[in-house]
Write a structure and sequence with these properties.
The complex is a heterodimer of chains A (227) and B (683).
Chain A: H1 13-21, E1 26-33, E2 39-46, H2 51-57, E3 62-63, E4 66-67, H3 71-87, E5 91-99, E6 104-111, H4 114-128, E7 142-144, E8 148-151, H5 157-160, H6 166-172, E9 176-183, E10 187-190, E11 196-197, E12 203-209, H7 210-215, E13 222-226
Parallel strand pairs in A: 1-9
Antiparallel strand pairs in A: 1-2, 2-6, 3-4, 5-6, 7-8, 8-13, 9-12, 10-13, 11-12
Helix pairs in contact in A: 3-4
Chain B: H1 2-18, E1 31-35, H2 45-50, H3 53-56, H4 77-92, E2 105-110, E3 115-123, H5 127-138, E4 146-147, E5 152-156, E6 159-163, E7 167-175, H6 186-202, H7 215-238, H8 252-256, H9 265-284, H10 296-302, E8 308-312, H11 314-328, H12 330-336, H13 343-349, E9 353-361, E10 364-372, H14 375-381, E11 404-409, H15 412-427, H16 432-449, H17 452-457, E12 459-482, E13 488-508, H18 511-523, E14 527-529, E15 534-537, E16 548-552, E17 555-559, H19 562-567, H20 581-587, E18 592-596, H21 598-608, H22 615-627, E19 628-635, E20 642-651, H23 662-678
Antiparallel strand pairs in B: 1-2, 1-8, 2-3, 3-7, 4-5, 5-6, 6-7, 8-9, 9-10, 10-20, 11-12, 11-18, 12-13, 13-17, 14-15, 15-16, 16-17, 18-19, 19-20
Helix pairs in contact in B: 4-5, 6-12, 11-13, 13-15, 15-16, 21-22, 22-23
Classes of the chains: A alpha+beta (227), B alpha+beta (683).
Chain lengths: 227, 683
């Protein structure tokens, strides 16, 4: 979106902001799915660990070959994302926050079905790319069939991993991607062995290093079976 | 006889400069690099350079996807590899390529319009050898050679090679057609609304303001720009130069249809190919008065002894940048009535150049930067840099681990008038002035509260900035912890990072006024008083990063050095601890001085980044630490419109142990920096 498009496009435009900006950041994807398929999507990009560097970088036009977006542009994109979501079918209560002191950005909305969630995520990522082209990595990330929930991924590490430059790797090596999925029913099993189940048995957490994800050493893909 | 003599005098520059081929470089070129290879041929210098990584990544791209040779990004992969190999041979085995190494090589970049050009001008010792070598290197099948009047030419993709008996020009073209999406998204629409509001509020662009450009003149210039653009596009579209298998479907209408700015790639490519061929013919027959030889300062610099020289057409580039910015925001000035007029910028900067001259002599590599001021700038900068910083300033600079400093001494009134008024004047009629107005508003507001005399004398014009260490600093950040049910809790943690320790010292002219301003800042929560001696500055993150401010002994001191602010504010560091007398005296040698301890910088980076560096980075840092001694920047007072800034990099004595010339040692150091940059994070 800004400057060179990074290889590991995961979900939303926030990831692109994070990659352009920073060397140390965390992304949290927190999804609540009720039994009827509706739920809440809460996405956080936290660049707080790099805020000292970011304060300097924000004064520049470009850094390390990436164009540095202006604060207005980022605020504009957040507004654009919000407006796209509000128009997306089955999406309500869209909220965004921008904390420019700590460099934390969040987006939260309710969805009436997982299909609506997929469409919303896809629309936002498409809207925010310069050429408005569909990003395969942002499509069909979630699937829900009553007693099973799938976190899918179209990111092909075998293709994208070798394209990572040393600078990309440097940026991703200390970054984390955390997925939290919350359900009304208890979780029976998870296919991804890196995931943890909460004490209540109704939530699953998967915290991954983004470089390992980008290189395909770890995966975000998870099938969660519910009781 | 007299007539003949006058004619001789008139033609002399053309005759002299016909020898070095710079007569084929347009005067308006943005950048020109001159390489003088004569001293480095036959001693193995160029073949040694050819082995350095920064020159041997033939056909590869750097981390940002750019080619390692200027201008060949758009060639297809095979030709790019061939092109890079071709240039490597030219430098490593010039005789094989028919290149004359007793004369200068030129590389230049020119962007006269939407098409821009990279070109290499090479002197030839044997045109036939060059022709054969070039054709076999760059083309898998022998192409048709276009024989012109006294020259030969071959073309492929956006590449055009032309050569005569004495020189060759290798030209690569690319385009810069903009895609104007102005006003299509809500932010830009809002921006337009803001622009209109501001324009109305401050009367910018309104004929009632003090603009020196009348509305009719502005309209004329807008029309002229549009006409030039239209003519250029039409000229290219009508060009009948045969094109290889490319159908021209371009039309002026399609370009100007606001709903269809996306000119097909194939059309743009076709136009660029044609432009390259036309430009080649133009360069071969370039009249003297349109060539860079007609610029007296360029001619004079070329007469000097140097290893390499970089020429930057600062005035024209500045003008082009503003016009580029304005063309991207075409709609804004239609809405705001701010004309695309940049004549004031042109009047101020036209004729300003920067030349960087590299000489390597013994252990010392000297880069002399010369800023040639335009007559308007000369008038406004005369006497601006004067005097030297005060000795007492260095008391507050800790010497033990100092990495470097910059010192500047200016006449504050001239300095502030230059930046406050000259910049304003040069931009007030351009769209750039729109952004500038935000800053100038603050300036105007200040004038309400402070009279000119106070403003100019608040600081006395002496400034010193020193980096005194690289050390761990602690700051906090927000992260998340999760309870047993993964409910998120925001927590603040501390993080230690290696950052530079610095001190900035500014001499105060009106200490009483400065204290009054500080009191206002304190009320506005911009600073927080810690004790009677010093303040904490409210940096982003609400005082999270400790930055201190103090007024002491007629100086304003800003630093992140806690030890200085808490223990040494009264009298500065002791003689033992402060910066040595020799370095202090260096800092007071002229109005602008910079000094850098290269050896210490690399040693400290190695020490602080231990465990984070790859083996390759460590190797590069070792080489840099071993070879670089110090760097020194001395800026001189402008004389006859020329400001000189000498940058000297002293290398450690080698005593011939490495078996390399200092020229090669210098480039090996640059190569190490290249490797550190390109391998960052390779582990």
């Amino acid at each position: 979106m800004y400057g060179k498009r990074p290889a590991p496009v995961f979900l939303l435009f926030f990831a692109a902001i994070a990659i352009v900006f920073s060397g140390c950041f965390e992304i949290v994807e927190d999804v609540t799915i009720h039994s009827n398929g509706s739920g809440t999507f809460f996405y956080t990009v936290n660049l707080s660990q790099s805020k000292v560097r970011l304060d300097g970088i924000m004064q520049l036009d470009s850094t390390d070959g990436y164009r540095v977006p202006k604060k207005d542009e980022i605020n504009g994109d957040i507004l654009k994302a919000k407006s796209t979501l509000e128009k997306s079918p089955g999406i309500t209560n869209v909220e965004t926050t921008s904390d420019w002191t700590n460099y934390i950005f969040t987006m939260k909305f309710d969805f009436s079905s997982v299909n609506n969630l997929n469409l919303a995520v896809e629309s936002v990522s498409q809207e925010l790319t310069t050429d408005h082209k569909r990003i395969p990595e942002a499509s069909d990330n979630f699937a829900f069939a009553g007693k099973s929930f799938d976190r899918q991924s179209n990111y092909d590490a075998k293709v994208q991993g070798p394209k990572l430059t040393p600078k990309d790797k440097e940026i991703l090596k200390d970054a984390t991607y955390t997925c939290i999925y919350r359900f009304d029913d208890a979780v029976k099993s998870c296919s991804n062995t890196d995931s943890k189940i909460s004490k209540s048995g109704k939530s699953v957490m998967l915290k991954l290093n983004m470089l390992q994800l980008a290189l395909g050493q770890k995966s975000i893909v998870n099938r969660i079976s519910l009781q | 006889m007299k007539k003949f003599f006058l004619l001789f005098i008139f033609l002399l520059p053309a005759i002299v400069f016909a020898q070095d081929n710079s007569g084929h470089i347009p005067a308006g070129s943005n950048y020109i690099v001159t390489i003088n290879p004569s001293a480095h041929i036959g001693n193995g210098d160029f073949s040694a350079l050819g082995k350095l990584e920064m020159f041997t990544h033939s056909g590869e791209t750097d981390e940002n996807g750019n080619s390692l040779f200027f201008g060949d990004d758009d060639l297809d992969a095979d030709r790019k590899a061939a092109f890079d190999g071709f240039f490597t041979t030219i430098f490593a085995q010039p005789s094989k390529a028919g290149i004359d190494t007793t004369k200068k090589f030129f590389i230049f970049f020119n962007s006269p319009d939407s098409v821009h050009y990279w070109a290499y001008v090479l002197p030839l010792s044997n045109a036939d050898v060059f022709g054969d070598f070039m054709l076999s290197s760059l083309f898998s099948e022998k192409p048709a050679v276009d024989k012109g009047s006294g020259f030969s030419m071959v073309n492929a993709e956006r590449l055009s090679v032309g050569w005569t008996g004495s020189y060759a020009i290798i030209l690569l073209a690319d385009y810069d057609f903009y895609i104007d999406e102005t006003g299509k998204n809500p932010v830009e629409q809002q921006h337009i609304r803001d622009s209109i509001m501001l324009a109305n509020m401050y009367g910018i662009g309104n004929s009632s303001t003090d603009s020196v450009i009348s509305d009719s003149l502005r309209a004329q210039r807008t029309a002229r720009l549009q006409k030039e653009e239209k003519e250029m596009l039409e000229k290219l579209a009508k060009d009948t130069t045969p094109e290889e298998n490319v159908e021209v479907r371009y039309s002026y209408d399609s370009y100007y249809n606001p709903g269809d700015y996306d000119v097909p790639e194939v059309d743009k490519d076709s136009l660029v190919r044609k432009a390259a061929r036309n430009e080649m013919k133009r360069l071969i027959n370039l009249p003297y008065d349109l060539s860079v030889c007609s610029v007296a300062n360029f001619r004079n610099v070329q007469q000097e002894d140097f290893d390499a020289m970089y020429w930057y057409n600062y005035g024209d580039v500045m003008q082009k940048r503003y016009e580029e910015q304005m063309s991207l925001r075409r709609d804004y000035y239609y809405y705001t009535n701010i004309g695309p007029d940049t004549s004031n910028i042109q009047n101020m900067w036209k004729g300003s150049y920067i030349a960087s001259i590299v000489k390597i002599s013994g252990n010392v590599a000297t880069m002399e930067h010369r800023a040639y001021f335009s007559p308007a700038l000369q008038a406004n900068t005369k006497g601006m840099y004067t005097g030297r910083v005060k000795r007492k300033m260095f008391r507050y600079v800790k010497g033990e681990n100092m990495l470097g400093f910059t010192a500047m001494s200016v006449d504050m009134e001239k300095f502030m008038k230059f930046y406050g008024s000259v910049y304003r004047e040069s931009m007030s009629n351009s769209f750039a002035g729109m952004y500038q107005s935000y800053y100038l508003m603050v300036w105007d507001l200040l004038r309400v509260f402070l009279d000119d005399k106070t403003m100019y004398n608040l600081f006395d014009g002496k400034f010193l900035f020193a980096v005194t260490d690289l050390k761990p600093f602690t700051s906090s950040y927000v992260t998340y912890e999760y309870d047993e049910n993964f409910n998120q809790q925001e927590v603040r943690k501390e993080k230690t990072e290696i950052r530079p320790e610095f001190v900035f010292i500014a001499g105060l002219g009106k200490e009483k006024k400065a204290k009054q301003i500080l009191a206002i800042l304190e009320k506005a929560n911009a600073v927080k008083k810690q004790n009677p001696m010093y303040y904490l500055i409210n940096t982003p993150g609400e005082y999270d990063i400790k930055m201190y401010l103090a007024i002491r002994n007629g100086m304003l001191i800003i630093t992140n050095n806690e030890d200085l602010i808490q223990n040494h504010l009264k009298h500065g560091y002791s003689r033992k601890e402060r910066v040595k007398g020799k370095i202090r005296r260096t800092g007071r040698r002229s109005p602008i001085v910079g000094w850098w301890d290269g050896k210490k910088s690399f040693a400290l980076i190695k020490k602080n980044e231990e465990g984070n560096l790859s083996d390759d980075d460590l190797k590069s840092l070792d080489l840099l630490e071993k070879n670089i001694s110090t760097g020194l920047i001395i800026g001189r007072r402008p004389k006859n419109g020329v400001q000189r800034i000498d940058v000297k990099v002293e290398m450690n004595s080698d005593d011939g142990k490495s078996g390399q010339t200092n020229f090669v040692r210098f480039f090996r150091m640059i190569n190490s920096l290249f490797l550190i940059h390109s391998q960052t994070g390779s582990q």
